[in-house]
Amino acid sequence: MVAAGAALADEVGLSGLTMGLLAERVGVRPPSLYKHVGGQEDLTRRIAALALSEAADAVGGAVQGYAGRDALAAAARSFRAFVLEHPGRYAATIGVEPSGPDDPLATAGRRLLDAFTAVLRGYEIDEADVDHALRMLRSFCHGFATLQSANGFQWSADVDESFEWLIAFTDRGLRAI
């Protein structure tokens, strides 16, 4: 049910996802959905956990065997591709908070954070600055991908070229710390 909800969110947008629409999609009556999920909020939380897990798999797999700029580029490209391919399910991850350390959201979020932390190991970053560097990477990757997903780059410069420029810029910044 969660996978079907995530696919539907990607298709119609998270704000367009309703229990009624999901029931129609999977061919059941709306009350039958409540055997699988506790309601709209529970469905959204489960979609968020799924999305974070899938993003962690994508980024973690992409950075394997790479370090430094190559790892940065692989992580950024895979994250961007994930968000562009799955905009609805990624939207579910924004602003949702885990209920505790064992919450699937927390577990998946840590895995994604670990993948980006692995990227930072290729740079000489003080331990005290790792959190700042992670926030910068999240801002860069999230910001670019969500703006692109929302058609926020409507001027003539090539979007892929801009993204590669931003990877190079970020690499230079991480090396300068």
Structure in a nutshell:
The protein is an all-alpha fold and 177 residues long.
Computed over alpha carbons, the radius of gyration is 18 Å
Helix content: over 70%
Uncertain segments: none
Helices and strands, in order, run as HHHHHHHHH
Structural class: mainly alpha
Helical element count?
A: 9
Distance between the termini: 46 Å
* pLDDT averaged residue by residue: 96
DSSP strand tally: 0
- Shape verdict: globular
Major β-sheet profile: none
Query: β content, as a range?
Result: under 5%
List keywords for this structure.
mainly alpha, 71% helix, 177 residues
Task: Record the SSE blueprint.
Elements (H helix, E strand, L loop, with lengths): L1 H11 L6 H8 L3 H4 L6 H24 L4 H18 L1 H5 L12 H17 L9 H20 L9 H18 L1
Question: Could you characterize the architecture of this molecule?
Answer:
There is one protein chain. By secondary structure, this protein is mainly alpha-helical. The chain is built from nine helices and no strands. The protein is globular, with a radius of gyration of 18 Å. The termini are far apart. The mean pLDDT is 96.
